[in-house]
Amino acid sequence: MAAAWQDVVRDAAAVREAAAVAVDAALLAGVLMRTGEQPHASDVVNFAPFTLLPSAVPRALFEQAYAVQQDFNLLVDAISQNKEFLEQTLASTIKVDDFTARLFRIYTQVLEEGLAQSVFLGINRSDYMFDCGLDGTAALRQIEINTIAASFGGLTSRTTDVHRLVLKVLGKSEEASRLLPNNPAKGLASGIAKAWELYGSQRAVVMFLVEDVQRNIFDQRCIENELWNRNIGVLRKRFRDVFEQGCLDGSRRLYVDGQEVAVVYYREGYVPQVYDQQNWEARLLLERSRAVKCPDIATQLAGTKKVQQELSRPGRLEELLPGCPEAIARLRATFAGLYSLDEGEEGDRIAAMAIADPDRFVLKPQREGGGNNLYGEELREVLEKIKDSPERTSYILMDKIKPQPALNYLLRAHSPLQMSECISELGIFGVYVRQGQQLVLNQAAGHLLRTKATEHADGGVAAGVAVLDTPYLL
Ligand code: ADP
Ligand code: MG
């Protein structure tokens, strides 16, 4: 798996020429990001970081990841409707983690009032790494599932063409022709369009709830433009705009800036830092409304790391998906070892195990967006410090996945061209729509491969660590 491009990867002249072609191709294809220096401007932009070469991915594992995506959609949807499960699973977490607690409070508040929303739209991305066993065989292991603001479905739809061209320039037309087509932007837009249609008002628009700083705007525009092409109007608004311009009518229809909103698509709202008191109020207003939230607050909670850990307990999947033994087998086959650090004997034992052998594990708080996990010595230090305090409960522990590295070049604006030892993470996008109790759409919507140098333990593309990639199936 590591040796896909052995003949060219060390050919400095060929690599330099191909890199120049690659960067121009990325700009032409629209693989773009706003710059760190001018994050609010679209008149000076640069290419989003990407690999020079597509990375090898074992075909069987790629197919396995696609085959389990509808199961993950079903599972997330089932969890989001299971109040008892969410309550029990998050009970210990919300005692110590203020952010999860505040989300949970909104969740209970909207349930008490009674849901006005009757159409549900889920867009998620299940992320995996390829764990290399002692005998050299690789296994698919889920890293996490993102149920809110899963990004890069737009830019990755345009990255394949760039890699196809690079391979041709390197004399590999045959291999170039084998890169798979991939268009998550279209798949995600079709889910949003379905939800919009079921909401049932021609005048209503889709609202992208966006960040204050929108460096990744082009990724979002890919989906936005797909909607405009279907004659569905799109608004881009921040929480602050909703606070200032949003209101509900008597039947809890949502209006922002005078326009009725059918679907709220969150590309923001998953980190505590964005929420001041006004933004929490805006979030509550959105959740109380009749509009289709993608995701609704229950589905956001279903994507927490604590829920992921709980799912790995024997019997849990059977409770959540009764009568689906095949789906359960497919889901479970992707799980890595996950461990609870809740107070009590089990948690004590797990904490001691991790302190004794920190390199075997990753310590994860209830946070999203990269850069929050702890590894190695740092893991040991933090766990030593909190092992006898309730704070321990805000984390989960996970087996560390150890993929086989491969050589590649990470192309980044203003960075020298240099060879790196890299590992990749495969994400599969899923989209589903439910009306009342009836699931009307459930699909895998494309894939995303992100690659990073092995010297970084953590961090995604937005965090400046990983770069966009294209799978080359072996
Ligand atoms: P986030 O919500 O911050 O994206 P993740 O669980 O995806 O949290 O972790 C962030 C990154 O840390 C991943 O993209 C991956 O590179 C690394 N990582 C997470 N879990 C593991 C693991 N079990 N083994 C190895 N690396 C991991
Ligand atoms: Mg992640």
UniProtKB/TrEMBL annotation:
Which sites bind ATP? 144, 305, 364-373, 375, 398-401, 425, 452, 458
Domain spans labelled Glutathione synthase substrate-binding: 204-302
Going by the UniProt record, its keywords in alphabetical order are:
ATP-binding, Glutathione biosynthesis, Ligase, Magnesium, Metal-binding, Nucleotide-binding
Question: Which cofactors, if any, are listed as required?
Answer: Mg(2+)
Question: Where substrate is bound, by residue?
Answer: 125, 148-151, 214-216, 220, 267-270, 450, 461-462
EC number of the protein: 6.3.2.3
- Which Gene3D superfamilies does the record cross-reference, listed alphabetically? 3.30.1490.50, 3.30.1490.80, ATP-grasp fold, B domain (3.30.470.20), Glutathione synthase, substrate-binding domain superfamily, eukaryotic (3.40.50.1760), Glutathione Synthetase, Chain A, domain 3 (1.10.1080.10)
Superkingdom is Eukaryota
| CC cofactor note | Binds 1 Mg(2+) ion per subunit.
Q: One GO CC annotation, please?
A: cytosol
Q: Which residues does Mg(2+) bind?
A: 144, 146, 368
PANTHER family in the record: GLUTATHIONE SYNTHETASE (PTHR11130:SF0)
Functional summary from the UniProt entry:
Catalyzes the production of glutathione from gamma-glutamylcysteine and glycine in an ATP-dependent manner. Glutathione (gamma-glutamylcysteinylglycine, GSH) is the most abundant intracellular thiol in living aerobic cells and is required for numerous processes including the protection of cells against oxidative damage, amino acid transport, the detoxification of foreign compounds, the maintenance of protein sulfhydryl groups in a reduced state and acts as a cofactor for a number of enzymes. Participates in ophthalmate biosynthesis in hepatocytes.
Q: Tell me its family.
A: Belongs to the eukaryotic GSH synthase family.
Protein name listed in UniProt? Glutathione synthetase
Q: Which organism is it from?
A: Cettia cetti
The lineage is: Eukaryota, Metazoa, Chordata, Craniata, Vertebrata
